[in-house]
Write a structure and sequence with these properties.
The complex is a heterodimer. By secondary structure, chain A is mostly beta strands. Chain A is built from no helices and 11 strands. Chain B is globular. Classes of the chains: A mainly beta, B mainly beta.
Chain lengths: 118, 110
């Protein structure tokens, strides 16, 4: 079975702490994404990466950074956590549809990491 | 990015068909229509996608209007396990960014 694994299902951190959320995929996908999900707001894209060491800002990058040193791993970093970053964080990966260069391939999501910042 | 509009919530009875609508009046010619669903306490999962023609797979069917300004996800026989939030998303064929709106929360009544 294909898999996207997020390192922690639940985390509790204090304001000002540095937080690392890790995501690993075993499908050799080029693209990886970090979303956050909040009630009533749906999923909002924070950052995505289409290759090793490449990153692009999504809709809400402020307060976050990312790292992609290896193809299978995409990390989300909160340099100084704040209470408004309490949320569910979802990692996903995708690849072009087979035999094309069109990015219509399906997104595979991890189970999510619920972060609470006190 | 082109936007989609979905009802906030819908209800269905178990073992009956469900038609989940999505409006996307500003869709462009290269946008694919994707549907995902999110079961409670899980990440979203892919359901189906299409461009112009209707599509079927083991999970659902996708009916796309001739002018492509709307589409309908069809669950042929709803089960309790189909209770989820369903997202309709437009994906540019050359792009890499999926934009998720609030979706439709489907309740299935026994």
């Amino acid at each position: 079975d294909v898999k996207v694994t997020q390192s922690s299902r639940y985390l509790v951190k204090r304001t000002g702490e540095k937080v690392f959320l890790e995501c690993v995929q075993d499908m050799d996908h080029e693209n990886m994404f970090w979303y956050r999900q909040d009630p009533g707001l749906g999923l909002r894209l924070i950052y995505f990466s289409y290759d090793v060491k490449m990153k692009e800002k999504g809709d809400i990058p402020e307060g976050y950074s990312v790292s992609r040193e290896k193809k299978e791993r995409f990390s989300l970093i909160l340099e100084s956590a704040s209470t408004n970053q309490t949320s569910m964080y979802l990692c996903a990966s995708s690849s072009p549809a087979r035999g094309t260069n069109i990015y219509t391939g399906e997104l595979f999501f991890g189970e999510g990491s619920r972060l609470t910042v006190l | 990015d082109a936007k989609t509009t979905q009802p906030n919530s819908m209800e269905s009875n178990e073992e009956e068909p469900v038609h989940l609508p999505c409006n996307h009046s500003t869709i462009s010619g290269t946008d694919y229509i994707h549907w995902y669903r999110q079961l409670p306490s899980q990440g979203p999962e892919y359901v189906i996608h299409g461009l112009t023609s209707n599509v079927n797979n083991r999970m659902a069917s996708l009916a796309i209007a001739e002018d492509r300004k709307s589409s309908t996800l069809i669950l042929h026989r709803a089960t309790l396990r189909d209770a989820a939030v369903y997202y309709c998303i437009l994906m540019a064929g050359y792009g890499q960014n999926f934009v998720f709106g609030p979706g439709t929360r489907l309740s299935v009544l026994p």
